[in-house]
Amino acid sequence: MSREREKGMSIIVKTITRLTVGLILLYGIYILSHGHVTPGGGFAGGIIIALSFVHLMLAYGKDVALAKLPKGVTSFLEGTAAIAFLSIALLGFMTGYFFLNFLSKGEEFRLFSAGIIPLCNIVISIKVGAGLFAIFAALVLLKFEPEKKEKRK
Amino acid sequence: MMQAMNIIPIFVAIPLAGSFIIAILGKRPRWAPDLISGFTTLVLLAASILAVGIANTHGVLVYSIGAWKAPIGIEMVLDGLTAFMLVTINLVAFAVSVYAVNYMEQFTSKSKFYTLFLLMLAGMNGLVVTGDMFNLFVFLEIASVASYALVAFGTEKHELEAAFKYAIMGTVASLFILLGIAILYSFTSTLNMADMASVLAQKESKNIVLMVSVLFLMGFGLKSAIVPFHAWLPDAHPSAPAPISAMLSGVLIKSLGIYALCRIFYNVIGMTAEVSSVFMFLGVLSMVVGVFLAIGQWDLKRLLAYHSISQIGYVVLGISLGTPLGVIGGLFHLFNHSIFKSLLFLDAGAVEYATGTRDLKDMGGLSAKMPATGTTNLIASMSIAGIPPFNGFWSKLIIIIATVEAGRYWYAFWAVLASLLTLASFMKVMKYAFLGALKEKWSQIKEVPVFMKLSMGVLAAICVFGGLLIIPDVADVFLNRARNVIMEGVDYAGLVLKSIR
Amino acid sequence: MAVYLLCFTLFLLGIYCILRKRNIIKIIIGVIISEYAVNLFFILTAYRAEGRAPIYSKSAIIENMVDALPQAVVLTSIVIGLATTALLVGIAMRIYEKYGTFDITKIRDLRG
């Protein structure tokens, strides 16, 4: 090819992505924060949030997406969220049982209720989102040439 | 807060915390991953010895996670068998973690190694502690996926091929286990092990239990490398780095495979005569096939891997006999095999660290230059071959006596034959690798560094004094408790449900 | 009854893929299909006759809901499947880098 192709997909995809990727992120946050009232929760919300970044990577090419969320930050977020989840569990351990629901439970079906479950949802979503994006970034960034097969001795 | 049962979640929480901290810290500072991992495994070893004492004074301890009581909540149960497995796992893990401080200098990303290693340890600990069927599956998968990644750690050609084979076969086994759990859940509508045992004892359930038994036999049989499900082991165990080979062969196939089989078949489903004889036959088959295939091997670690299959056959034969003497023999051999097989793999790793080769024909006369490795290898070889007074002799003797007492004379004959062939095989290893004349190219090698010598020495000392565990006073504390849990069978359910506060 | 047979057929299809296909990527797809079949089986066993979705809200009456426990269990199982698949694909890509082929009949260095 004599001419450098533009990175990413066509102009239609880029325009639609620019319009919708913020809405996808917002939808993911909605699913995650209402995890104790409606179906969904941490894992589903985290995947949708990660998918908004993956959408950005697919439409614009990997440089734009990795500028928004570099690899080091992703690894750090993943590890920190894991430790945060374990410390929520251990806080319950200090005051009774492992994973005890020690915050106040509030009234049913309101947003600020159900003890530690919304906190767990948020932490899980960060971990799952960072994990999925890290897997995708690692598979995209893997650069190799296949080794030439040597003659067997 | 200082109740005795609060010790149980420690076994899962501490290795997870260590693993995540090492993952964040990365490579700086240089000594951090080694220190954190060594400290974590030391704390776990102390906690597991404490747990043996606690299990003796309190009987069966039940810990309900999140204060949700059974049968709704997930429970962690600490009884004699659990305490026995915890000591085995954490002892070998501590020795391997100390060994890896020096050995893993050859690889570039030590922090990733320790992350995966502590995750695998958390999975194994969690599996022996849990009292809930699906929780067992989750911990099984944590430990398995971590071990697939660890086998592929060096990313050379052979390691990747072995890791791929192991991963595919392990995943299929996990699928069968999940299918079995799904069928059991749909039949008993509970996931708690004690509750499931009491429901299965009351309902009329012959055909479903038969199907679930076959599925679990296939799934857990592959995890514990019983013939005919053994094909992944001779490729996976040699290709892993030496500390991981020791962990895989020493504790992973026992915790994931043999412990899960014991717990499910004795305590939940209930052992019948047909299942017992199937297991005995498979055990003897593993014994014989393993040792016959091991005789012709010239690769040191592949030979040790085939011997693992053979010795696991002994353990399965002992445990599936169902008589008290047989079960004690099987459990004692499980503990002994963890110790001496890990020591053998660590020795093979030391040889590879010093000389760079695993081929027996290439080596010769190494014990002149490497006295510590030579001595510990001699001790471990005599243990596995069953020479008195090392610990392997006592456990094999008990298994053979129990087999004869149960009237299975043919099985006892094959057991003795396999023992003799094991002795021949290890005499070959000693002759080719350690005794004899030192070859020209090995005249510059040195003994291995201090941490490796330390961990090999500790394991060798336990090999020498391990026979003392069968003295009746000492056995009461450690082995007899584990045997009683297996012998009481489905009464486990009543004991657990009573102990819930 | 027919639904269970179809689910079982899906499982067997996945196992056939693992056994008979020669390309590594096709074997991995077989693993994925089998995992989904087992998850589907778990959900199918949770159905109660004339049941409704087990979502509890202020105005809901708790009668005739399907079993809610397998839904949480299958969520965990899907996550485990995702992790296993990611690891298998990573190993497969490294194998291509070292061996130069995806054909398993040519990746047979370890034997004996």
Characterize the overall form of chain B: globular
Secondary structure category of chain B: mainly alpha
What is the rounded distance between the termini of chain B? 15 Å
Q: What class would the helix/strand composition of chain A place it in?
A: mainly alpha
Succession of helices and strands of chain A: HHHHH
- Rg from alpha-carbon coordinates of chain A: 21 Å
Element layout with pairings:
The complex is a heterotrimer of chains A (about 150), B (about 500) and C (about 110).
Chain A: H1 11-33, H2 42-60, H3 62-68, H4 71-94, H5 117-141
Chain B: H1 10-25, H2 32-58, E1 61-64, E2 75-78, H3 80-103, H4 110-129, H5 133-151, H6 157-188, H7 193-202, H8 206-223, H9 233-239, H10 242-268, H11 273-295, H12 300-320, H13 324-355, H14 371-385, H15 391-405, H16 409-434, H17 450-465, H18 472-477, H19 479-488, H20 491-499
Antiparallel strand pairs in B: 1-2
Helix pairs in contact in B: 1-2, 1-4, 2-3, 3-4, 3-10, 3-13, 3-17, 3-19, 4-5, 4-10, 5-6, 5-10, 6-8, 6-9, 7-20, 8-10, 9-10, 9-12, 10-12, 10-13, 10-19, 11-12, 11-16, 12-13, 12-15, 12-16, 13-14, 13-15, 13-17, 13-19, 14-16, 14-17, 15-16
Chain C: H1 2-20, H2 24-44, H3 69-99
Protein model, in words:
The complex is a heterotrimer of chains A (153), B (501) and C (112). In chain A, helix 1 (11-33) packs antiparallel against helix 2. Chain A is built from 5 helices and no strands. By secondary structure, chain A is mainly alpha-helical. The longest helix of chain A has 25 residues, at 117-141. In chain A, 64% of the residues lie in helices and 0% in strands. Chain B has helices at residues 10-25, 32-58, 80-103, 110-129, 133-151, 157-188, 193-202, 206-223, 233-239, 242-268, 273-295, 300-320, 324-355, 371-385, 391-405, 409-434, 450-465, 472-477, 479-488, 491-499, and strands spanning 61-64, 75-78. In chain B, strands 1-2 form a two-stranded antiparallel ribbon. The model of chain B has no long low-confidence stretch (mean pLDDT 87). The mean pLDDT of chain C is 87.
Structural key phrases:
heterotrimer, B: 501 residues, mainly alpha, 20 helices, C: mainly alpha, 3 helices, 0% strand
